[in-house]
């Protein structure tokens, strides 16, 4: 190849392999077939590629897109603020929820429903979520005999933990005033400015 | 053995009749195959297993397969069956049928004059070979010449045409 | 016919069909092992329950006859393969003096005749389905079977010449001084290839090549009718393996060590079963290892390579036997 390059300056296309003809073809073909028989036979003693599933689970990375959960913030409160962005982002429209409000102005979903018989596990809802509330987890064992059991309500979705983003709490970084956190008390938030005052 | 002979003969006769009267070509051929198998069974009953097996192999197993193969390729529809049914009207077959009946009667009379064939000794492959390559050597050679001629002509017909110049 | 003989016939035929059913599992398991998988190992011990499960499934399936099919022919076609192949098994001796039909002086010819009749099954099944894929599969099968039958018969002739008999039992007894695999190696290879083609086994399963013809001749078949084709194929595999054993590997011959069971020397049967089983496994290995040729390659190989070789084998064997006998 390098000689060709030197002589012509362009890489030469190697000629197509000439297939042997006649008797040679038969003899060669016969022995190559025998060889492949032998090699396949040796696979009897090779390592199995099978993962025997129910007893032996395959390793799934933490960011695997499986069952969808609703997480809580470090205080144990629901992270979901019922903004409906996940429902909008969902390409198959399998998410439905209803907003409700606590007396202190905090939003939460009154009910939250995911129809997993439609869900395609694309992860769009997770990307759309502004509060890391909705998350996809490496759990895929969701088969059901009855299709109606595939519809998950809020109590099925809501987990106790924080999921993939520990320590994050939306209301601690957001400017909204709720009970126990007045305006200006959030992280990296300066105290509110009174625009009507002339004092510096 | 004579029971086998009579049963097989009856089957052969019935199957042959059905082969003639079926309108659908493939069904007719199937009855013809059954008829050939029944003839093989009669040969077996008469003590000629070698000939019987050759009948099964060559006639039922090879020649009739080709027949069915060709009929399959022709894609004969219901129209053909209708045609066939028209040909089965008495006007068509009564003349040849009468003539055949006369011949059959003659054959039967000459056969009945002979002593019965059953109960003869078994003719095995070796005996057939000795007979073929002894007294019938000339016939065998003539037959093989004929087959060779057929083979060569089939080869000639099936030969690929040498590529002619395709330039206009 | 004595009741003992009836029991023997029943036992042999039942054993053959049961083995054929078992082969469904064996084949899947072995294919799995040769492809670095486990194969079906869930249902029952070693997955043996798979046989029962498959049987139940195939019996329960809707046995549908397409409205455009030729009904009587469609129904009869799957039965033909079972009947002919089981009939062919009748003359295969599995131990000295033990076979369904007993020793017959035209045994080899009978087997050839029955295998040639088995073609009708595929052919009529494909035609009666009234489906273009089925018809194409049937046509391929017919052409393939007719061609390879010729080589099968010619390859056998070497053995017949050496043994001087068409009887399978005589052929086995003629191998007491040495199996025919040595002198008839060419004939063995030819017979093996022809046997593959006759049984439509991979790599020569052109009649049902699924990526070209959906399922070939049994495209329209379902339920137990499909099961008949399916099991018929396995019975044919057992038949060809048994024939290879009988014709080239000394049949039941082997050291008996004087072992007996209730006064009957059973080692010949064990040898026959072991040899046949080895061939069945070899057939499965062929399926696992060798890709399918193109159809024109198959026919060209048959007529241009196998036929001359088979004729050569016959002529050379004949010449040797004549020289030996000093004629």
Automatic annotation (TrEMBL), chain A:
The reaction(s) this protein catalyses: a quinone + NADH + 5 H(+)(in) = a quinol + NAD(+) + 4 H(+)(out)
GO cellular component, one term: plasma membrane
Cofactor: [4Fe-4S] cluster
Binding site for [4Fe-4S] cluster 1: 80, 83, 86, 129
Keywords annotated in UniProt: 4Fe-4S, Cell membrane, Iron, Iron-sulfur, Membrane, Metal-binding, NAD, Quinone, Repeat, Translocase, Ubiquinone
Subunit architecture: NDH-1 is composed of 14 different subunits. Subunits NuoA, H, J, K, L, M, N constitute the membrane sector of the complex.
Protein name: NADH-quinone oxidoreductase subunit I
Species name: Fontimonas thermophila
Organism taxonomic ancestry: Bacteria, Pseudomonadati, Pseudomonadota, Gammaproteobacteria, Nevskiales
Automatic annotation (TrEMBL), chain B:
EC number: 7.1.1.-
UniProt superkingdom: Bacteria
Cellular component terms (Gene Ontology): plasma membrane
Record's subcellular location: Cell membrane
InterPro entries per the UniProt record, alphabetical: NADH_UbQ/plastoQ_OxRdtase_su6, Nuo/plastoQ_OxRdtase_6_NuoJ
Topology of this chain in the membrane: Multi-pass membrane protein
Gene3D superfamilies, alphabetized: NADH-ubiquinone/plastoquinone oxidoreductase chain 6, subunit NuoJ
GO molecular function ontology, one term from the record: NADH dehydrogenase (ubiquinone) activity
Location, primary (coarse class): membrane
Transmembrane segments: 6-23, 30-52, 58-80, 92-113, 133-155
Catalysed transformations (reactions): a quinone + NADH + 5 H(+)(in) = a quinol + NAD(+) + 4 H(+)(out)
The entry's keywords: Cell membrane, Membrane, NAD, Quinone, Translocase, Transmembrane, Transmembrane helix
NCBIfam families: PRK06638.1-1
Annotated family: Belongs to the complex I subunit 6 family.
Function: NDH-1 shuttles electrons from NADH, via FMN and iron-sulfur (Fe-S) centers, to quinones in the respiratory chain. Couples the redox reaction to proton translocation (for every two electrons transferred, four hydrogen ions are translocated across the cytoplasmic membrane), and thus conserves the redox energy in a proton gradient.
Subunit structure: Composed of 13 different subunits. Subunits NuoA, H, J, K, L, M, N constitute the membrane sector of the complex.
Protein name: NADH-quinone oxidoreductase subunit J
Annotated organism of origin: Fontimonas thermophila
UniProt lineage: Bacteria, Pseudomonadati, Pseudomonadota, Gammaproteobacteria, Nevskiales
Automatic annotation (TrEMBL), chain C:
Annotated transmembrane regions: 7-26, 38-60, 72-95, 107-127, 148-166, 178-197, 226-249, 269-289, 301-323
Family statement: Belongs to the complex I subunit 1 family.
Topology with respect to the bilayer: Multi-pass membrane protein
GO cellular component, one term: plasma membrane
Catalytic activity: a quinone + NADH + 5 H(+)(in) = a quinol + NAD(+) + 4 H(+)(out)
KW Ligase (keyword) present: no
Enzyme Commission (EC) number: 7.1.1.-
The protein's name in its UniProt record: NADH-quinone oxidoreductase subunit H
One example of a Gene Ontology biological process annotation: aerobic respiration
EC class: translocase
Keyword Cell wall biogenesis/degradation: no
Localisation: Cell membrane; Membrane
Subunit structure of this chain's protein: NDH-1 is composed of 14 different subunits. Subunits NuoA, H, J, K, L, M, N constitute the membrane sector of the complex.
Species of origin: Fontimonas thermophila
GO molecular function terms listed in the Swiss-Prot or TrEMBL record: NADH dehydrogenase activity; oxidoreductase activity, acting on NAD(P)H, quinone or similar compound as acceptor; quinone binding
UniProtKB keywords: Cell membrane, Membrane, NAD, Quinone, Translocase, Transmembrane, Transmembrane helix, Ubiquinone
């Amino acid at each position: 190849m390098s000689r060709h390059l030197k002589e012509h300056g362009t890489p030469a296309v190697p000629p197509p392999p000439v297939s042997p003809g006649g008797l040679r073809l038969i003899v060669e073909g016969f022995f190559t077939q025998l060889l492949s028989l032998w090699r396949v036979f040796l696979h009897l003693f090779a390592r199995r590629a099978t993962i025997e599933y129910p007893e032996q689970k395959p390793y799934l990375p933490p960011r695997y897109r499986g069952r969808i959960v609703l997480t809580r913030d470090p205080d144990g409160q629901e992270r979901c603020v019922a903004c409906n962005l996940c429902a909008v982002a969902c390409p198959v429209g399998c998410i439905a929820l209803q907003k409700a409000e606590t007396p202190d102005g905090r939003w939460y979903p009154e009910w939250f429903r995911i129809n997993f018989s439609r869900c395609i596990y694309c992860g769009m809802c997770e990307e759309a979520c502004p509060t890391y509330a909705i998350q996809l987890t490496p759990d895929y064992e969701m088969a059901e005999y009855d299709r109606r059991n595939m519809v998950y309500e809020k109590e099925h979705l809501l987990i106790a933990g924080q999921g993939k983003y520990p320590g994050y709490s939306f209301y601690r970084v957001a400017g909204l005033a709720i009970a126990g956190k007045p305006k200006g008390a959030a992280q990296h938030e300066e105290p509110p400015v009174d625009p009507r005052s002339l004092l510096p | 053995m004579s029971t086998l002979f009579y049963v097989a003969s009856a089957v052969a006769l019935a199957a042959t009749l059905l082969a003639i009267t079926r309108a659908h070509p493939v069904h007719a051929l199937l009855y013809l195959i059954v008829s050939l198998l029944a003839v093989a069974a009669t040969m077996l009953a008469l003590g000629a297993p070698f000939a019987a097996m050759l009948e099964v192999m060559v006639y039922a197993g090879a020649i009739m397969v080709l027949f069915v193969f060709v009929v399959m390729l022709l894609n004969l529809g219901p129209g053909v069956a209708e045609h066939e049914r028209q040909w089965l009207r008495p006007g068509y077959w009564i003349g040849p049928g009468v003539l055949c009946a006369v011949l059959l009667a003659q054959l039967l009379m000459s056969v009945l004059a002979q002593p019965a064939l059953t109960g003869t000794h078994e003719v095995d492959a070796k005996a057939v070979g000795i007979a073929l390559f002894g007294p019938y050597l000339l016939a065998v050679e003539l037959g093989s010449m004929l087959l060779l001629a057929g083979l060569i002509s089939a080869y000639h017909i099936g030969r690929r045409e040498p590529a002619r110049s395709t330039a206009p | 016919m004595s009741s003992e003989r009836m029991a023997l016939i029943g036992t042999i035929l039942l054993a053959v069909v049961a083995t054929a059913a078992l082969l469904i599992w064996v084949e899947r398991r072995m294919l799995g092992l040769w492809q670095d998988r486990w194969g079906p190992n869930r249902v029952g011990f070693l997955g043996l329950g798979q046989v029962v499960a498959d049987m139940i499934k195939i019996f329960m399936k809707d046995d549908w006859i397409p409205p455009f099919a030729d009904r009587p022919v469609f129904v009869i076609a799957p039965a033909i393969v079972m009947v002919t192949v089981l009939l062919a098994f009748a003359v295969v001796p599995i131990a000295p003096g033990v076979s369904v039909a007993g020793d017959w002086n035209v045994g080899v010819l009978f087997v050839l005749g029955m295998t040639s009749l088995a073609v009708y099954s595929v052919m009529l099944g494909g035609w009666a389905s009234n489906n273009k894929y089925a018809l194409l599969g049937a046509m391929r099968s017919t052409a393939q079977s007719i061609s390879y039958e010729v080589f099968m018969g010619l390859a056998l002739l070497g053995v017949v010449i050496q043994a001087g008999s068409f009887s399978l039992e005589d052929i086995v007894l003629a191998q007491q001084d040495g199996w025919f695999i040595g002198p008839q190696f060419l004939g063995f290879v030819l017979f093996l290839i022809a046997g593959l083609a006759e049984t439509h086994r991979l790599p020569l399963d052109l009649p049902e090549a699924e990526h070209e013809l959906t399922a070939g001749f049994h495209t329209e078949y379902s339920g137990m009718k499909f099961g008949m084709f399916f099991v018929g194929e396995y019975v044919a595999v057992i038949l060809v393996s048994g024939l290879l054993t009988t014709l080239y590997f000394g049949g039941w011959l082997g050291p008996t060590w004087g072992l007996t069971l209730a006064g009957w020397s059973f080692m010949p049967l064990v040898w026959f079963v072991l040899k046949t089983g080895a061939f069945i496994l070899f057939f499965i290995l062929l399926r696992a290892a060798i890709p399918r040729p193109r159809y024109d390659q198959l026919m060209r190989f048959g007529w241009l390579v196998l036929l001359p070789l088979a004729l050569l084998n016959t002529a050379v064997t004949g010449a040797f036997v004549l020289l030996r006998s000093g004629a």
